[in-house]
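Structure ticket #2291
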Amino acid sequence: MSKTQNQQILNYLKNGNSITPLEALQKFNCFRLSARIFNLREDGFNIITNYITDDNKTYAEYRFISSPTEVK
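Resolution: structure written out below.
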């Protein structure tokens, strides 16, 4: 059984990695990373967004902070 994109992305973030939309497309075939992050946040996972500007292009980078049981 394959994992959902949400599960794959969450596991990737929990391992200390950050992720950008381009990485999500390459690693998980995910075209809508922001929607997956929204779902994870709805489930209570604390994920922060850092906006990066490179060559006059701005994109989001997401990083995991804590799980629902760790949030107080």
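Closing remark: The helical segments are 5-14, 21-28, 33-42.
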